[in-house]
Design goal:
245 residues; Alpha/beta knot; 2 domains; 9 strands; Trp Operon Repressor, Chain A
Length: 245
């Protein structure tokens, strides 16, 4: 997978892309990340990339010419690259979106800054994505989130660990509680079922706890989750035990 990043601040990517799983994935050639400075596509002595908004208002707007030149330069060499604008106005980044993008070979992520990009830039992108309903100083952190989420689904990136289908959101539910040593810690003990060696009982407990945790913390996810009749029965029991019919 190739990630081309259009940004005003390429230095923001250096450390995250050199560490941990992403660093190893790059070293092994499983992912390639190319950084392109938007300022390199600006004209004039000062390479200006932003200007005041028409109609007045606070802040500065990123000019269309440098961004669009950068997009065209990348697509001239790689027409298959899918161009994504990181913006709070985009579609929410969900696991199904990550899965879809992980099947592509080349992504171009455009990082906005200041008060946003000139509206005409949107005519040159394939889609817009938001990582959440909050405001960042720019699209760089969002692009890093995208790279991290997508890369872990690429075969070989997680090594022997694999991309766990038990992870939160992988099956539309939050993950069940996890425990490791010590068995007892400050009066808190590991559930006995996890020590029983009964794998079927453990799987039932994990499924029940995943359903319980999702119902308690993110009930909105249940509407889109694939639930069996047994899952529905478990949820009904959880509701009844909580005093909700």
């Amino acid at each position: 997978m190739i990630f081309d990043i259009l940004t005003l601040f390429p230095e923001m990517f250096f450390s995250p892309l050199e560490e941990s799983i992403l660093g190893k994935a790059r070293q092994e050639g499983l992912i390639t990340v190319n950084l392109f400075n938007i300022r390199d596509y600006a004209e004039g002595k000062h390479r200006v990339t932003d200007d005041e908004p028409y109609g007045g208002g606070t802040g500065m707007i990123m000019k269309p010419e440098p961004i669009i030149r950068g997009i065209k330069a990348i697509q001239s060499d790689h027409p298959e690259a899918r161009v994504i604008l990181m913006t709070p106005q985009g579609n929410p980044l969900r696991q199904e979106v990550v899965r879809r993008l992980a099947h592509l070979s080349h992504l171009c992520l455009v990082c906005g800054k200041y008060e946003g990009v000139d509206e005409r830039v949107r005519e040159f992108v394939d889609e817009e994505i938001s990582i959440g309903d909050y405001v960042l100083n720019g699209g760089e952190p969002a692009a890093l989130v995208m790279i991290d989420a997508i890369a872990r689904l690429i075969p070989g990136v997680l090594g022997n660990e694999g991309a766990s289908e038990d992870d939160s959101f992988a099956q539309g539910l939050l993950e069940y509680p996890q425990y490791t040593r010590p068995r007892d810690f400050e009066g808190m003990s590991v559930p006995e079922v996890l020590l029983s060696g009964d794998h079927q009982a453990i799987e039932r407990w994990r499924r029940r706890e995943a359903l319980r945790r999702t119902w308690e913390r993110r009930p909105d996810l249940l509407a889109g989750a694939e639930l069996s009749e047994e899952d529905q029965e478990i949820l009904n029991e959880i509701r009844r035990s909580s005093g909700i019919a």
